[in-house]
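Human: Respectfully, please carefully check these tokens:
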Amino acid sequence: MSPYTRNHHNSQTLRQCSKGSALGRAINYARKQWDSLTLYLNDGRVEIDNNAAERAIRPLALGRKNHLFAGSEDGGHYGAALYSIMGTAKLNGIDPKAYLTAVLKRINNTRASDVESLLPWNINLDDSQVAEAI
């Protein structure tokens, strides 16, 4: 750890402001969290921020208000299932629209015992039966 980061949290700023002030409380909080705040300096595996996680959950957070207007509780459950299917397709490197189109094209001709073939990690989007749907 650099001398700056090691000594910076012991700066004169806290002595110059009231401990009860908003700034004083913020500085005290940062001092108590100092080891966690500077962990990324000592361990290269630790990210300096959590932007990747924030970006991943952003669509869910933005849609939260929209989900209130699903029409009914069942509508909310169906919407959640659809989001789950689309998210699983993305996690498996498949375009969600192409995946959903392919599944809807094939599901009518798929026996219940073969439904696993439609899962994102099993489906073959290059199959001629599926390719024409996309």
Q: What stands out?
A: The mean pLDDT is 80. The chain has nine helices and no strands. Residues 3-42 form one domain.
